[in-house]
TrEMBL record:
<dbReference type="InterPro" id="IPR000917">
    <property type="entry name" value="Sulfatase_N"/>
</dbReference>
<dbReference type="Pfam" id="PF00884">
    <property type="entry name" value="Sulfatase"/>
</dbReference>
<dbReference type="GO" id="GO:0004065">
    <property type="term" value="F:arylsulfatase activity"/>
</dbReference>
<feature type="transmembrane region" description="Helical">
    <location>
        <begin position="230"/>
        <end position="250"/>
    </location>
</feature>
<keyword id="KW-1133">Transmembrane helix</keyword>
<keyword id="KW-0378">Hydrolase</keyword>
<dbReference type="GO" id="GO:0070013">
    <property type="term" value="C:intracellular organelle lumen"/>
</dbReference>
<keyword id="KW-0812">Transmembrane</keyword>
<protein>
    <submittedName>
        <fullName>Arylsulfatase D</fullName>
    </submittedName>
</protein>
<dbReference type="GO" id="GO:0046872">
    <property type="term" value="F:metal ion binding"/>
</dbReference>
<dbReference type="Pfam" id="PF14707">
    <property type="entry name" value="Sulfatase_C"/>
</dbReference>
<feature type="domain" description="Sulfatase N-terminal">
    <location>
        <begin position="40"/>
        <end position="425"/>
    </location>
</feature>
<feature type="transmembrane region" description="Helical">
    <location>
        <begin position="199"/>
        <end position="218"/>
    </location>
</feature>
<dbReference type="InterPro" id="IPR017850">
    <property type="entry name" value="Alkaline_phosphatase_core_sf"/>
</dbReference>
<keyword id="KW-0479">Metal-binding</keyword>
<feature type="signal peptide">
    <location>
        <begin position="1"/>
        <end position="34"/>
    </location>
</feature>
<keyword id="KW-0732">Signal</keyword>
Length: 595
């Protein structure tokens, strides 16, 4: 810039036409051309289970989120930002690859819709190309801090075929799995709770039958051979061991922390997890400040058991959940301060979102432990209703993106993929379908409409709804082909199940589909019909043709979340020690522990 200003007198001397040109340039909007900033840094902040209604800048006036609100004030807020799936594993697979999760086999045909064990064999396939891998090839330092939940091993406990370092990240610190209440010894177990109860009941019944038979034999009331009783007792013991060896040690098998390929805590010490994740994030920024970097901070907040440090307990008006969200907001502020401290604010694109909607059914007694989705119907696990998939979406890049902008166009978490790749100077893969769209023209105001004409809303591999963005009118139509059956009726969630299902007796099929115009009815309160909407038949036909075209782009792939892939396999269990004696704490003397 200094060179350009120094040459102005010479230019003015050469031509009187330069003066009006200079004034015209000075009157232009003061935003830097993105192309003049080669390879900006990227800080991607992804919350876990955070509802769109939990954030101040999206309408919450009781949970304090000043740092997330500051991002929106200084950047661009998206009000129709859509997750590609309503649960963690498939949504994050789509985020990382820019593709609907069923294209990579990361959505389920059964009820096991996420990765259940670190010792499962399913995960993000090696032939999928993440944005991190492309940025790595562009010379970026790439780091993932926090939650992964995309699998670990395939054939042995150390092959790490699904590990973050195999998918483009130079550095990983965090949980290869996801945070669950089983990780907190004082909390009620969460993982597969209903199935675990059935196993306990079956064990007790088999044990009771065995004990009754033995007593009957001893008292002479029943004529049973001792060999038969021995076999029955052996079966009872084997049945118990078969399931208790996995479900009885969930905290040791799933609640672990890793640094790169090594386990640092097994089980994790939850009292210091937040401190370590924050310090690792700031340390990554400080170590890489002199070269382009990608930091993907994948929060454990606000997933149960809502790990919250003592200084934030009791601070909010929404109990432990609100405390946890406010602590996450504080962590966002600490990361932003680190960016400012290193003088990186103008060269860093910051993005904040949630992986899907809040978990309405997550309760313990009178305590509400899940999030709130504002005016939107439904929540986590519901692939069609807005509450399960509409999430916060905020971008900040000072000098490039106009501050205080609100965009209501349909966008997707999958859009991060091409946006980041193009800004880094890379190219998206040409040998596969990429469902995301480059958001930069929309974010900068160069175009008024989103590139998305249709978005397909899956629940597992089952298509529940389709959104059509009618660009000539701005209307956003949404047709529901299946919806979950709420229980109790009218409750807005599936409280008796804990999760709403994707198929079977727990859903209603709609023919004709339920149709809503979201720009007029964002809460999806009043379905339209041919009698009330003149365009009803036209819209349904248009969406039907789009579904046919979309399905022609799908190709069969191995199911990563099949039952055989999600079950616990002891030979795949990550272990700090000699299996099954897996225990270690390598962070006990780490100076990063204290905040």
């Amino acid at each position: 810039m200094a060179k350009s200003l120094a040459s102005l007198p010479f230019l003015c001397f050469r031509s009187p036409l330069v003066t009006p040109l200079i004034f015209g340039l000075l009157l232009q909007a003061p935003f830097t051309q993105a192309s003049t900033i080669t390879q900006p840094n990227f800080v991607l902040l992804l919350a876990d289970d955070l509802g769109i209604g939990d954030v101040g800048c999206y309408g919450n006036d009781t949970i304090r989120t000043p740092n997330i609100d500051r991002l929106a004030k200084e950047g661009v807020k998206l009000t129709q930002h859509i997750a590609a799936a309503p649960l963690c594993t498939p949504s994050r697979a789509a985020f990382l690859t820019g593709r609907y999760p069923l294209r990579s086999g990361m959505d389920a045909v059964n009820d096991y819709r996420v990765i259940f064990w670190n010792a499962g064999s399913g995960g993000l396939p090696a032939n999928e190309t993440t944005f991190a891998k492309i940025l790595q090839h562009q010379g970026y330092s790439t780091g993932l801090i926090g939650k992964w939940h995309q699998g670990v091993n395939c054939e042995s406990r150390n092959d790490h075929c699904h590990h973050p370092l195999k998918h483009g990240f130079d550095y990983f610190y965090g949980m290869p799995f996801t945070l669950i209440s089983d990780c907190q010894p004082t909390e009620t177990p969460e993982m597969d709770r209903a199935f675990r109860r059935k196993l306990w009941l079956s064990t007790q019944m088999i044990g009771l039958i065995t004990l009754t038979a033995v007593l009957g034999r001893l008292t002479g009331l029943i004529s049973v051979h001792w060999k038969t009783l021995t076999c029955l007792a052996g079966f009872s013991l084997l049945f118990f061991i078969s399931w208790f060896s996995s479900y009885g040690f969930v905290r040791y098998w799933n609640c672990i922390m890793m640094r790169n390929h090594g386990i640092t805590e097994q089980p994790m010490v939850t009292d210091r997890t937040t401190s370590l994740i924050l310090r690792e994030s700031i340390s990554f920024i400080e170590r890489n400040k002199d070269k382009p970097f990608l930091l993907f901070l994948s929060f454990l907040h606000s997933h149960t058991p809502l790990l919250t440090t003592e200084k934030f307990l009791g601070r909010s008006r929404h109990g432990l959940y609100g405390d946890n969200v406010e602590e996450m907001d504080w962590m966002v502020g600490q990361v932003l301060d680190a960016i400012d401290k290193e003088g990186l604010k103008e060269t860093t694109l910051v993005y904040f979102a949630s992986d899907h909607g809040g978990w309405l059914e997550r309760q313990e007694g009178e305590r509400q432990l899940g999030g709130w989705n504002g005016i939107y119907k439904g929540g986590k696990s519901m692939g069609g209703w807005e509450g399960g998939i509409r999430v916060p979406g905020i971008f900040r890049w000072p000098g490039v993106l106009p501050a205080g902008t609100v965009i209501a166009e349909p966008t997707s978490l999958m859009d991060i993929y091409p946006t980041v790749v193009h800004l880094a100077g890379g190219e998206v893969p040409q040998d596969r379908v990429i469902d995301g769209r480059d958001l930069l023209p929309l974010l900068r105001g160069a175009v008024a409409r989103s590139e998305h004409e249709f978005l397909f809303h899956y629940c597992g591999v089952h298509l529940h709804a389709v959104r059509w963005h009618q660009k000539d009118t701005g209307a956003v139509w949404k047709a529901h082909f299946m919806t979950p059956i709420f229980s109790p009726p009218g409750a807005g969630a599936c409280y008796d199940r804990g999760f709403c299902p994707c198929f079977g007796e727990g859903v209603t099929h709609h023919e004709p589909p339920l149709l809503f115009e979201l720009s007029q009815d964002p809460s999806e309160a009043t379905p339209l019909s041919a009698a009330t909407e003149p365009l009803f038949d036209t819209v349904i036909r248009k969406i039907g043709r789009a579904i046919e075209e979309h399905r022609r782009t799908l190709t069969p792939v191995p199911e990563q979340l099949s039952v055989s892939n999600v079950v616990w396999k002891p030979w795949l269990q990550p272990c700090c020690g000699t299996f099954p004696f897996c225990w270690c704490d390598k962070e006990g003397d780490n100076k990063l522990v204290d905040l």
